[in-house]
Specification:
Elements: E1 2-5, H1 10-22, E2 27-31, E3 51-55, H2 61-71, E4 75-78, H3 85-90, H4 93-115, H5 119-124, E5 126-132, H6 157-176, E6 180-185, E7 187-189, H7 198-208, E8 212-215, E9 221-226, H8 227-240, E10 246-249, E11 254-256, H9 257-271, E12 283-286, H10 301-307, H11 315-328, H12 330-336, H13 339-350
Parallel strand pairs: 1-2, 1-4, 2-3, 4-5, 5-6, 6-10, 7-9, 8-12
Antiparallel strand pairs: 9-11
Helix pairs in contact: 1-8, 2-4, 4-6, 7-9, 9-11
The chain binds nicotinamide-adenine-dinucleotide (NAD) and 2'deoxy-thymidine-5'-diphospho-alpha-D-glucose (DAU).
Length: about 350
Amino acid sequence: MILVTGGAGFIGANFVLDWFRQSDEPVVNVDKLTYAGNYGTLKPLHDNPRHVFARVDICDRTALDTLFAEHRPRAVLHFAAESHVDRSIHGPADFVQTNVIGTFTLLEAARQHWSTLDAAGQAAFRFLHVSTDEVFGSLSAADQPFSETTPYAPNSPYSASKAGSDHLVRAWHHTYGMPTLTTNCSNNYGPYQFPEKLIPLMIANALAGEPLPVYGDGQNVRDWLYVGDHCSAIREVLARGRVGETYNVGGWNEKKNLEVVHTLCDLLDQSRPKAAGSYRDQITYVKDRPGHDRRYAIDARKLERELGWKPAETFETGLAKTVRWYLDNQHWVDEVASGDYRKWVETNYARRA
Ligand code: NAD
Ligand code: DAU
């Protein structure tokens, strides 16, 4: 049995759904179901006895101890986090709570469980922490991509809280000998991504005939990775990663934001043409994100060299699949974009006009 946290969120749910396509091993899925978590995404598993869903906050040590004692997992895959940079600017407290205190609480519960295992069980146990490239800060156009040895320089409350969690994981290995692994990944995209993030937000706004809000000059660069490729990288690291190591995960797809939005508009123009004009006509430049990191780029050669992992999707194939998925699953977007989400849109975008 493996224990997954945040398995009702974007990447966690994709991971759990992929896991059951390839494995019979049971999963206990621990998720608080915040605004970003959606039990409906896991519908194909609702009647699967090998999938145990527990609505639990990772800050709740008692509930975690009970889950560890009951299920005795051989591994923890830690996805749960507050993940949206703009929300961390408006309200950093939840980010410190879940990303730092929550990770600390989970590490302690895992360590308690680990201490009860026999020597072979302890050696085989893994705590895999899913982190981000944002902990490395911002690059200029001429800088080399982030490697595993790039110094940490987080710039937003989100990335600072993730950096804090990475340091805790490192220390739990160094001090207690717990077999940890950390992955630092670039921007994911694909099915089931909450429509507050760039790609699903642009698709949803385009189809609704609303403005496509590009922050600042639209020249910020992100490296894009299809979520299925991130899931396969995590499975490889879990199976064969060297204990105590960190692995960068990236798609070798550096794109300026404006380029991404243009490509999305072009794909929508082909598959869902407007009565007149192009979706590009809806692009609107809005006030920039405070402290907006200029460029992220990932050197993922360690993962390729040591574990033979490479992304299967190109940006073109991944984005085409993603647009198709959102066109076919608009009911999913309608479901997650609740009243609370509309309040967030008002908070984030009203002040950018
Ligand atoms: P998400 O916001 O879509 O999902 C987060 C999930 O965690 C939700 O299901 C939510 O309910 C759950 N959660 C939040 N607080 C919790 C708590 N206190 N207890 C239990 N569950 C809680 O996030 P995502 O985009 O799927 O990201 C997953 C992980 O991957 C995060 O750790 C994030 O930092 C990391 N990451 C994300 C990206 C990306 O591009 N999305 C890239 C690199 C790394
Ligand atoms: O790099 C990995 C990170 O990628 C993850 O750790 C985070 O959890 C994830 O949210 C993502 O962070 P970003 O801030 O890069 O993603 P976001 O989709 O919010 O924004 C991508 C870029 O698009 C960024 O430069 C800001 C810009 N943007 C975003 C939104 C929501 C816009 O121009 N307009 C928008 O409306």
